[in-house]
Structures are given as structure tokens and as C-alpha cells.
Input
Amino acid sequence: MLALVTGLLLVLLVAGCPSGNGNGGGQNGSTELTIRDPLAEALRYIPVSAGIVAVVQTDAGTGPLRSALDLAQQVPGSSTVIGRLEQLVSDRVGLSLSSEATALAGAPAVVARMGVSAKAATLGAWVVADEQTLADIFRSRVDAGTVSAGGEHKHWTIYTGVGGVYAQRNRVLLSASNPVTLRAAIDRRLKTGRGGGLTRATFTARSMSGISAGQAVVRVAVTGPALRNAIARQAPKATQLPWVAAVRGAGLALATDSDGLHVKARVRTDETTVSDVDLPIAAGAQAPEPKGDAPVVVGVRNLAQSADVLLQVAQLVTPDRLKTYTMVRDLLKRFAQVDIEGDILGTLTQNATLTVPDLRGVTLRAETSDEQRLRDALSRLGRIGRLAGIAGSFGIGVDTNGLAIRDEGDDRYTVLKDENPVAVVAVRNGIFVASSDPLTDVDAVVDALDTVDGAAPSSSSGALRATLTPSALSDVLVDRFGLPSVARVALESLGGATVTARAELGYLLVGVDVAVKG
Output
């Protein structure tokens, strides 16, 4: 089971990393390294400016990794995954995971991306448990011709391979994507203060996530520039949003226990440059009260705020996808004097529940803060069809793009596109209901009970809470990552998942908890 973590690390640290750039300087006159703290030693080779830094546990005897490996044993097919991983490591680095890797493991390993771009150089640093084993591995690789000796740099032995360059000195193993980055890491080792390497305290502060260092299998620290650059690569105009512009970095961690897998992330923001209305979800720890039952249930407190932010994001990032919404909004405003954002969405400031029965359709149940305003707005929806019909009788062409609203009575309205029912909206007892299924039982939605408390225990709180049943989680993973259908066999061991989010002016907390069946 150690292969699950150690094997991947060795592929990165020994087999090489993607191409990129580096920097450096410094001097070292001693032939021995004094290592008091293996993690602190590994971090010293990483520049403070590194965009992404990950610390991964490798001690499979006790602690977080042992817990993760014990949990992995409950997953069907894990032995097959391990076998394939062992073959991958053997093919790339000629290393036996059952012997050499076990001898090397123990102290945390550090892997970093130097800059903020996707092409930035990468660097790995690891204080291994056994110096002789590490030296023997490199010797055997040289004999096999998979790496070549590259001389020395300030008492470090340098090796060159197809995938990158490596260096060994005593128990320290370095791997870099190019010689400049490798030598810069060696030179950085002796620097202190400005220009020196990353300290343990700095990394701990940057990687703060809500999971302690003693519980985490993996901890990741991302700088503000790296995170904003990653967002900009996916959606260049998103950085115009006040909240995105205020991002100052993020910490992420993964942990396991008897309940399952837990991931937490904390995105730091500059609280002086944003206000409550800029947050992606309403501020505060108060949790929503979702009502309803479905494979996917999402509870949101103050849906009006999240809807407003999502519309801003969509307008900047994917304006083409808003064409239908914009068309409907303009038609309603022109022919029915209904302002979707003000008269409908703007009143949904209480608890709201989104239920997704089949990962396609969706039903919204939302408490309104102004039922009369909402009721009046809905009563005007039918004007679209009537006004179009009246205009047509006088020979006046009114293009509604096939959209019509049919008043079913009792504050229920069916939305039609080209005379085909496509959705329903209604209001009952202060509850707004909207569904992509025109046959939805509105009264049943209004009277829905509190949703069954999901799939995985979660200690997090905040304005958003989503639960996925085991089958829904399996569908999401298979569809999202393009996994083969056979992957569902392994995924059967997973329980459901719970996702929570909490926003404040200075941070956004996101938690994901996935249950694993015992």
C-alpha cells in the first residue's frame, strides 16, 4: 500500500519533472549536512516565491499515511491499482517499491512549482531515511544506463536523466526540471533571511486549511499570484470580479479517518477590498436548512446573493451561455413588466434547496422575503402569450422566440417553448418553486421535509451545503474524469459525499467529506 504515495513521489522526484526555468546563488564549503528537522531541511531548498508547494507524508508505519492506507484497503480493486503503479515506477525508474522505496520513506517529501505559470519549473526535495539505499539506487541506475553521472556542484553529486536532473548529498534527494533550477536550490540552502528558502512557519501559515499538520496526508500552499493566474487561465475576465481580485492565496489539505476521506481548503482574501455583497455565498457560519430528497441536494442560505454573483461571473466568463437567459429576461421585462432579478431572484433571501434527481433536471424550492411582490410578478407572466396573440391579430409581428407562459391557476405557471412544456414555476405559502420538469408536484415540493442528513459526517458550517448519494457520487466521478464503466466497481465502496462552504470577508472555507463503507 505504500506504493500509492511513495511511488508517485518517486516518479516526480527521481524520474523527473516538466520543463521550466529557475534561479539561484550561494556557496557551501562543508561536506556534511546537519539535519535536525527533515521537513524544515526539505523546505529550505524551495524559494519563498514558489507558486505551489505540497508536503506529502511518506511514513506508512503510523500517523496520517497509515490511516489513509488502511482506508484504501477497503476499496475494491486497490490491489490492481497498486500493481499498475508498481509497474509504472519500475518502467520509469527501475525501482522496487517493496524494498528500496520502503527504505527511503519516512520523512515528508516536498514538491513545488517555482512560478505562477503552468510551464514554470518544478523542484522536489526529500530527506530520505537511508542514505546508502539512495546511493545504491543511483549507482544501479547509472549501471543500467537510465541516468548518467553529471559531476558535482558544491559537494552534491549530480545525475542527468531523460526526465530531468537530480542531486544527492547525504540523505537529501533533489529533483528538478532543469540544471539551473537544481543548482539554484543547492545554492539557496545556505542563504538565510531574504533570498533564502521557505521556512516551516511560512509554509504552515500559507497552507492553513482547517486540517492540522498532524492529521494531513497532503498539505498544499498556493500563493495569491499563482491562484489568480490559474483562475485567469480558465476565465481571463474573472479577475475583474472584486472577490477574485482580492484573493491572496490558499491552503489545502487531505486527511482520512474511520469515517472516510476529508478535504478542506481555505482561500485567503484581502478583507479591506471586498464587502459582504461581493462574496460568492452569504457571509457567516449559519447553515442553510435544505428540504427535499434526491441524489443531489444543495442547500443555500440567501440564494439572492449567490445568484447575483453567478450572473456576474457568467456575464464575464461565458456570455454566450447567457443568451437564452438574457432573451427570456428581456422578453419578460418588455411584455410582462417582470424584472427576473429584482421581482423574483431578489426576493429569495432565505433558505433555498436545489434538488437534482438525475444529474440533469433540477427543482428549486426557495423561501421568499416578499411573497406579495413575487406573486404579483408571477401573475404578470401570462402577458407574454396574450400580448403576442393580440399583436398578431392586428398584423403586428411580436417575436417571443417561441416562449409562452400558461397560467394554470392557483399561482402555478407552465413555461412553454414552441408550444412544448419545458418548466413550471409557482408560489405557495411563501415558497417559490421552479422546476425543469413541468409535471413537478408543486405542493409536494413545498411540503418537503428536512433532507436526510447526507452521506458523510461534516463538522463544517456555512451558507452552502450539498449532499450526494453514493450512486450520484459515482456518476459524477465517472462522468467528470471520463472513467471507464468498470470503475464503478471500485466506487461502490464509497458512501456519499458532503460539500460545505463558508464565506467571510477575509476567507472562504470549503470542505469535502467522502464516506467509505466499512
Remarks:
- Confidence is low (pLDDT under 50) at residues 1-29, 387-398.
- The first strand starts at residue 52 and ends at 56.
